[in-house]
Amino acid sequence: MREVFCEILQRKLFLPEKCERIVSFSPAITEALFKIGLEDKIKAVSTYCVRPKEARKKIIIGSYSTFKKEKLDEIKPDLIFTTTGYQLDLANKLLENYPVYAIRLPATISDLIATCCEAGLVAGYFEEARRLQKYLLTKLNEIINIKSSSKVITEEGKISQQNNPTVYLEIDLGGPVTFGAYSYITDALNFIGFKNIFDKYCNEWLKPDDKYVKDISPDIIIYEPKMFSKKRNQKDIIDALTKRFGEIKAIKYNNIFITPGIYDFLAHHGPSFINEVIPWLVSIKTKYTFSI
């Protein structure tokens, strides 16, 4: 047996050398474990674990904050993963009967990669975890070395380059939510050369101040509908944003971008954030044009 200490929960765990029965309540950790190659070791996941698609074939053990005790007792997990933040209460509840390891929510891109690796290390798959870390770091390095800038059309009709367009980012999490200084999303925008208009707010996430958005009049709006929602019609979304903000710069010049698919995209902090989300953000910066 291995002795593993979870600092977040202040709890010592006694785990097998290699965990064979893993349960994950975190979509990001589930994806990381699959990427490491532990798909056969994952015995159950939450209803929100949708990446990769094979994860949806696993036993559904609960949601962000609920679990099915009878099924957990049948599985007899060697290890249960949760995150912090919204899942900390769940972790403490599970701790009463099961070995639980809570992995912190990432504040930066470096944190995101580290937490993906940490899951594999805790489960006992050291080499596999470090291979994933190396792959993600290499991928990130390739992406950030791509030169990208945005076109600016002046009043005289001349085209120049804009390296730090301002961005307002909003995710529907049952209401409008944006992200501040302590978020991997803000960090990703900064990596690419965007400026999140809420990047000075000392929060991970916050409810946006519509007046502040109006006053700043950002160059770009990035909008993520609620997970599983099929209400993704661009005109309807733009109409709703216009009603709140008026004809701010992003709306005036039609620089509004809606995340693809019906699953969490920016709100998901697994390996696909490096593989899919950051390249998507880079493509926005390359395509983006506005007038001054």
Report on the architecture of this protein.
By secondary structure, the protein is an alpha/beta fold. Strands 10, 11, 12, 13, 14 and 15 form a six-stranded mixed sheet that branches. A five-stranded parallel sheet has the order 5-4-3-6-7, sandwiched between helices. A hairpin with a 4-residue loop joins strand 1 and strand 2. Helix 1 crosses helix 4, helix 4 runs antiparallel to helix 5 and helix 5 runs parallel beside helix 10. The longest helix is centred in the middle third of the chain and has 19 residues. The radius of gyration is 21 Å and the shape is elongated.
What structural keywords apply?
six-stranded mixed beta sheet, 10 helices, 292 residues, alpha/beta, five-stranded parallel beta sheet, 16 strands
Q: Quote the beta fraction.
A: 15-25%
Q: Tell me the distance between the termini.
A: 64 Å
How many H/I helices? 10
Overall strand count: 16
SSE order, one letter for each helix or strand: EEEHEEHEHEHHEEEEHEEHEHHEHE
Tell me about the largest β-sheet: 6 strands, mixed
Q: Level of helix content?
A: 25-40%
Shape: elongated
- Unreliable stretches covering 5 or more consecutive residues: none
Give the arrangement of secondary structure elements:
Elements: E1 2-6, E2 11-15, E3 22-24, H1 27-36, E4 42-46, E5 59-62, H2 69-75, E6 79-83, H3 88-94, E7 100-103, H4 109-123, H5 126-144, E8 150-153, E9 159-162, E10 166-172, E11 176-179, H6 184-192, E12 195-196, E13 205-206, H7 210-216, E14 220-224, H8 234-245, H9 249-252, E15 256-258, H10 272-287, E16 289-291
Parallel strand pairs: 3-4, 3-6, 4-5, 6-7, 8-16, 10-12, 10-14, 14-15
Antiparallel strand pairs: 1-2, 8-9, 10-11, 11-13
